Amino acid sequence: MQTVRDVMTTNVEVCTTKDNVFEVADKMKKLDVGSIPIVEEGNLIGMITDRDIVVRGVAEKKANSSRVTDVMSSELVTVSTDTSIEEASQLMAENQIRRLPVVENGQLVGIVSLGDLSTNHLSDERAGVALTEISEHLH
Questions:
Q1: Residue-number span of the structural domain to which 72 is assigned
Q2: One Pfam annotation, family name (predicted)?
Q3: Which of 26, 59, 83, 87 could connect to 79 by a Cys-Cys bridge, CB 3.0–4.6 Å?
């Protein structure tokens, strides 16, 4: 059985609670990514997405200097390194998410994306089903 450990990205860029929304957005732009994990002393406490910035920041007329904790998602679905890739795919489909933080003892150790699953070891058919379910719920 293949696990998340086999396909996850381990060199994950993060921000901390000391960063503001502008700094997170700037990092997203430089890295060309749509989400950044928020950590405090290595512990994962949230994720902030480009959509979070728009919906909880811009649309609510919050300043760019707002704290990341004001716009981040703190109720996260996470997996461990031993989670099977099938279970990770199922969690993504059920929760309509494209990225899962990988956590061990509260510490962020990686990220697994739908792309990681589809290009590495998950059948194209199963990844396609998960992506279709995620996309249908977003519209």
A1: 4-138
A2: CBS
A3: 83
- Continuous H helices in the chain: 4-7, 21-31, 50-52, 85-95, 114-120, 124-138
Q: Which amino acid is at 113?
A: S
- CA dihedral sign, ordered 103, 109, 115, 120: negative
C-alpha span between 27 and 36 (Å, rounded): 8
- Predicted confidence (pLDDT) per residue in 100-139, tens digit: 999 999 899 999 988 887 765 444 455 555 555 555 555 4
Number of domains in the chain: 1
pTM above 0.85, yes or no: no
- Say which CATH number the domain at 28 has: 3.10.580.10
